Amino acid sequence: QVQPVESGGGWVQPGGSLTLSCTASVFKRDYYTPAWFHQAPGKERQQISCISKTDHSAYYVDSVKGRFTISMDNAKDMISLQMSSLNTEDTGVYYCGPCGVNVNLYHSWGPGTQVTVYS
Fold first, then answer.
1. Residues 15-27: what's their mean pLDDT?
2. Which residue among 2, 14, 17, 119 is the one 20 to 30 A from 83 at the CA level?
3. Phi, psi at residue 33, to the nearest 5°?
4. Is the pLDDT assigned to residue 14 strictly greater than 60?
5. CA distance 72 to 92
6. In degrees, to the nearest 5, what angle opens at C-alpha 20 toward C-alphas 13 and 27?
7. Which residues have a Cβ under 8 Å from the Cβ of 30 and sit 6 or more positions away?
8. Sheet of strand 18-23, all strands in order from the earlier edge strand to the far edge
9. Are 20 and 9 spatial neighbours (Cβ–Cβ below 8 Å)?
10. Separation of alpha carbons 38 and 47, rounded Å
């Protein structure tokens, strides 16, 4: 499928962990560097992590460094996001998409997966 399909969201208490997954055949395309985005309630979608398909080097936004780990299975066209030490600010919908994209101009988003951190 061209549009990604995200999964793995759920409800978790602060300090808890979740692992998200995203699959998309578009990951095969040379120009496409996969990334995870987070959209908190009432806020703009924000890129939080990217991963290189060649050497799997990763980029993280400061707010998730040390808590989230992105990985990729090239054979399965799948990326994952291991999230730990979750806090209420991590609540929101998580999407995957191309690294560096203008979130206001890109329209090939998947449905996303909801993460709710509740206390």
1. 95
2. 2
3. -100, 115
4. yes
5. 22
6. 160
7. none
8. 5-7, 18-23, 78-83, 68-73
9. yes
10. 6
